[in-house]
Amino acid sequence: MEASYVNSSVLFVSHRPLNYTFGEKTVYERCRDMPAVLIWYLCLQFINMFLGIPANLVVLWLIHKNKGDSSTSDIFILHLAVLDVLFCLIPPLELANIVFINNSSSWNVLYFFYGTKDFSPLFLSCICLDRYVAVVHPITFTKLKDRKHRAVLAMGVWVIILAYAAAKCAGNITNFEKVFTAMILAAFAFMVFCNIVILWALRQSGPGKDEMHPVKKRAFKMVLIILAIIVFNYFPPVALFPFQDYFSPDVFFCYIHYVAFGLMDFSSTIQPMLYLTKEKLRLSLSCCKTSTTHIQ
What we know:
74% of the residues lie in helices and 0% in strands. It has 296 residues and is mostly helical. The chain has a single domain, classed as Rhopdopsin 7-helix transmembrane proteins (Up-down Bundle).
């Protein structure tokens, strides 16, 4: 391992995995002997660009179009979609930097966008919290439903995200990687807790042991899907990064890092697709109700 290229004592547990000496080897040259995961990661990023951008734009359009009939969580979904659209713009620069160049200025741009994506689980946590209060504490939810605290919370999350992204660009803060590790562990645990409690509450609310109201059954299935996606997208970094010392620097850099963040970044496509599926189901149900009314 070239000492000029890597300071092996500093492993960044975020999108920025290692300290580089700019102008030396590119990431692809560093992983020339094990390029499979890196190529897979870049393919996922371009899928994010070609599918994630239009999907998130449609989500933004639908939320704007249906703002008179929106759910309380839509404000967080809107901000998450904006963040994902911005993040999905970076694959061309990322490809150039990983394969062809190793320039400090272009890396700093990428670090900023990586920083925004690193903390995107905060918006998911807000969505989970909103649904948790709605299902488990409906009286409190009704009292808070029409207040502006969600907009204030969303702005607060943006302040945290932008501050983290700016600090990530600086790249000179001691033990900065621990901020991401602590956030992803806490957010993952919180989201899983909220969704499990919601599932349990919906399951217990049926009139009989094996019965459930159709509306609650649909809500149950949707939350179950959301829980599965949270585990799929965010469990790899939660499971792997705390054990980075057990991997060699090359294996962690070329395999573990890009597997974990490839799956996490793919949430930029999966999340809007889930929202659009839910909206399609809602519209289908509305059409069915309208047709039934006309027949009667």
